[in-house]
């Protein structure tokens, strides 16, 4: 009985590994399709297929990538719908769910309802969240959009000196501050 269970487990593990390897190959092929003659259209189709059939990790990555490519291609409603699926997927890695929320907020920053954007970004801006500097940057830009210049300036100043924030975020914060008249 024990030997049968061990053999069964080994067979299942091999099958799982082969499924993961096949998904990895398909994901890489979809990425490579971006450089092909029909580029984004083929890649989007490939990622959409993977989003429907791949094991969980690659399914999530494929939905993220397809959403990003759809947004870049001007298909924002379908991009947002796909990214919202990732953000709401309890089985997806929390880091990737938060990334999906951040991407949606970034893509909608100039036209979506400010209250909805704020409610999406504020949890991401909490200390300890790896996306916090980017979420704080988006919140500052949202403040600017709403005319809350003093609040945006305060947030940008904090970001410009935040040693935890990526250098690009600090530099953008400094540049925006300079455009606002310094300080």
Characteristics:
183 residues, 2 domains
Report what the structure shows.
The chain is mainly α and 183 residues long. It folds into two domains: 17-108; 115-183. 76% of the residues lie in helices and 0% in strands. It is built from nine helices and no strands. It has helices at residues 2-33, 39-53, 56-72, 76-88, 94-108, 114-121, 132-145, 149-160, 167-179. α3 runs parallel beside α5, α6 packs antiparallel against α7 (132-145) and α7 runs antiparallel to α8. The longest helix is centred in the N-terminal third of the chain and has 32 residues, at 2-33. The radius of gyration is 21 Å and the shape is elongated. The model has no long low-confidence stretch (mean pLDDT 87).
User: Which regions have little confidence, pLDDT < 50, spanning 5+ residues?
Assistant: none
Number of strands: 0
Structural class: mainly alpha
Number of helices: 9
A few lines on this structure:
The protein contains nine helices and no strands. With 183 residues, it is mostly helical.
Walk me through the topology.
Elements: H1 2-33, H2 39-53, H3 56-72, H4 76-88, H5 94-108, H6 114-121, H7 132-145, H8 149-160, H9 167-179
Helix pairs in contact: 1-2, 2-3, 3-4, 3-5, 4-5, 6-7, 7-8, 8-9
């Amino acid at each position: 009985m024990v030997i049968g269970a061990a053999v069964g487990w080994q067979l299942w593990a091999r099958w799982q590994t082969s499924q993961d390897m096949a998904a990895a190959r398909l994901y890489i092929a979809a990425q490579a399709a971006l450089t092909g003659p029909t580029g984004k259209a083929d890649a989007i189709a490939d990622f959409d297929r993977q989003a429907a059939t791949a094991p969980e990790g690659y399914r999530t990555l494929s939905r993220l990538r397809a959403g990003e490519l759809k947004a870049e291609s001007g298909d924002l409603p379908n991009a947002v719908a796909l990214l919202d699926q990732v953000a709401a997927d309890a089985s997806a890695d929390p880091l990737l769910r938060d990334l999906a929320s951040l991407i949606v907020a970034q893509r909608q920053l100039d036209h979506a309802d400010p209250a909805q954007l704020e409610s999406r970004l504020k949890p991401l801006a909490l200390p300890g969240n790896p996306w916090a500097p980017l979420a704080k940057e988006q919140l500052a830009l949202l403040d600017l959009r709403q005319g809350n210049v003093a609040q945006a300036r305060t947030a940008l100043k904090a970001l410009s000196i935040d040693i935890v924030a990526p250098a690009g975020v600090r530099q953008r914060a400094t540049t925006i501050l300079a455009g606002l008249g310094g300080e």
